[in-house]
Amino acid sequence: MKKIKLLLVDDEKAFLDTITKRLEKREVTVSAVYSGKDALVELENNKTIEAVVLDVKMPGMDGIQTLVEIKKEFPLVEVIMLTGHATVETAIDGMKMGAFDYLMKPCDIDVLVSKVEAAVEKKRQHEEKITEARIREITERRV
Known about the structure:
The protein has one domain (4-142): 3-Layer(aba) Sandwich (Rossmann fold), CATH 3.40.50.2300. Helix content is 53%, strand content 19%. It is built from five helices and five strands; from the N terminus they run βαβαβαβαβα. It is globular and about 60 Å long.
């Protein structure tokens, strides 16, 4: 699998710094931001990001609002919701709005990496299907 490009979004700087270092040791390219608005800017500026790990509870634009905007503007980017304050309702809301999965803080780094790999694989397969459909469309027009 080629190197994963991940965006981490969390308002807790210490947590973000720690998880960034741990993911980079596992050959993941990480961009990190501290708010939902910054996440949208980063996704706009960095089209190579394949997945987002997104904290639910943040001041200003919370994780659910950010998820809705990400899925609207960048529908192929997979989002894993992450929180220390999870409720079943929040998890269900996130999944209904297009989140790939939902994890509790603190989460095991191997579990997080596994979820990120699965999310990226789903995105890459979806992009491959879109590319194949476009190629088919172009070749059928020539016939």
